[in-house]
Amino acid sequence: MKLAKTEKKPGGIGETISVIVQALLLAVVIRSLLFQPFSIPSGSMRPTLLEGDYLFVTKWAYGYSKHSLPFSPDLFEGRIWGSEPKRGDVAVFKFPPDPSLDYIKRVIGLPGDKVQMKDGVLFINGTAVEREKIGTIEDVDITEEDRAVDVYRETLPNGVTYTTLDLTQGAAGDSTREFTVPEDHFFAMGDNRDNSSDSRFSVGFVPMENLVGRANYIFFSIADGASPLEIWRWPSSVRGDRLFKSAAE
C-alpha cells in the first residue's frame, strides 16, 4: 500500500514574519548602501530645488560613514571608501550642531579653500566666481516672492554652472569674513543666497563624516503643499516639467 504524499501548505505566521524580516533587511541595505529618497523641506536651494521635490540620493558617491546607516549608530568613525565631494555637488549631510537633521546644500569650498562673499559676489581663493545676470523670475512657485526676482548664473572654477536667486541687495550673507575651510571639512551654501542657513551662518564648516550622499535626479515634484499620496490633486499640482530633472542644475 502506497502512502499518499502530503504537501506542506505554504503560509503561516512564521513564513509571513520571515518574508517581512527579509523585506526590511533588503530595504535597509538599499537605503544604507545604494539610494535614499529625500524630500526638499525648505526653499534654501531655490531655484534649483523646490519644496515638494522628491529625489534620490546616491549613498556610494562619497563612501560610507555612520550617518549612512539609519539613526546614525556610533559603530565607527570616519568614512569607508571615502571620496571627497566636488565643487558644485548638491549634497545631503547631517547638520553639524544636530546630526538628527538632514540638510541639503551645494558644496562650494573644499579643504584649504578660502571662501568669502563680497557685495553678493562669491570669491574662492581670492578670485571672483564668474557671475552673470540672466534675467528675472516672477513665478511665486519658484521664488516664494510675489514680485520679480533677479536670477544669476554662477560658474565655479571647475566649470560647474547653476542658477542662484538674489532676493535682496545688501542682505546679511552678501558680505562675509573670509572663511578658511579646515581639513576633512567642506563649505556649503544654498542657491537661494538670501534665504539659506548655511556655512556662512549656523551650519559652519561641515565634517566630511557628515555626508549622506549626492543628490542626482528629481523623480517626483508636487506644488501647493500637496502630499504625493493625494492622487486626486496630481492633475493640478504635479510639476511635470521637473520629473527626472537634474538635482544640481
TrEMBL record:
InterPro entries: LexA/Signal_pep-like_sf (IPR036286), Pept_S26A_signal_pept_1 (IPR000223), Pept_S26A_signal_pept_1_Lys-AS (IPR019757), Peptidase_S26 (IPR019533). It is a single-pass type II membrane protein. It catalyses: Cleavage of hydrophobic, N-terminal signal or leader sequences from secreted and periplasmic proteins. The chain crosses the membrane at residues 12-34. GO terms for molecular function: signal peptidase activity. It is found in: Membrane. Its EC number is 3.4.21.89. SUPFAM superfamilies: LexA/Signal peptidase. Pfam families: Peptidase_S26 (PF10502). The keyword Transmembrane applies. Keywords: Hydrolase, Membrane, Protease, Transmembrane, Transmembrane helix. Residues 15-219 form the Peptidase S26 domain. NCBIfam families: sigpep_I_bact. Belongs to the peptidase S26 family. This is Signal peptidase I.
